Amino acid sequence: MFFDPLYFVILAPAMLLSAWAAWSTRSRFAEWSDVPTATGMSGAEVARYLLDRFGLSHVRVVPHEGVLSDHYDPKEKEVRLSESVFYDRSISAIAVAAHEVGHAIQDKDQYAPLALRNAAVPVASFGSNVSFILIAIGFAIASVQLIWLGILFFSAVVLFQIITLPVEFDASRRAKEALAKLGIVTDRREAEGVSKVLNAAAMTYVGAALTSVLTLLYYLIRLGVFSGGRNEEE
Distance (Å, rounded) from C-alpha 21 to C-alpha 11? Predict the structure, then answer.
């Protein structure tokens, strides 16, 4: 399975999509980072305003190190914004900030996919760390049982990536609606910019999900599930 051409053939669509999504996200963010907001609000100010309006005054908005490292921590009840989002007064900044607030609103509303994703984090993290090791050893010593155990752990990663999709798309939907409803986005051009930034970012999650699904497919093919054979022994 090492340096297997079949792996690259199967994963090629996901690799291309992920590369394009990463480029598109950086490109869109940079493009709309040069467009100031009509309200003059920064990402941090927008996050704070939205949280207060949605009854989430207890949720903190804090700066966070890293580029596009923005996220909502449901345990600490914090919206953490990268410095380029926290301090900037651009369309990109308010789009990302509103998206993270969208996750906080999901948490408040007990949005089922978010709760399921949060619960799956420990299992998915463990599965990501051990699955490849188990599968590699299983193929090396021709142990079907070990391979299946690795696939089982990797399936948790696949499930996590799939569950992430509705969570992220819903957070973006909530962000767009909140920005428009509360008058933070004031015209069609600003709304277009917010949509482009968030839509580009969403495709990175699609790429990640597709990558995990196709990787699982590769493992199953090499195991001989679809041929009825024992490819792991070839």
Answer: 15
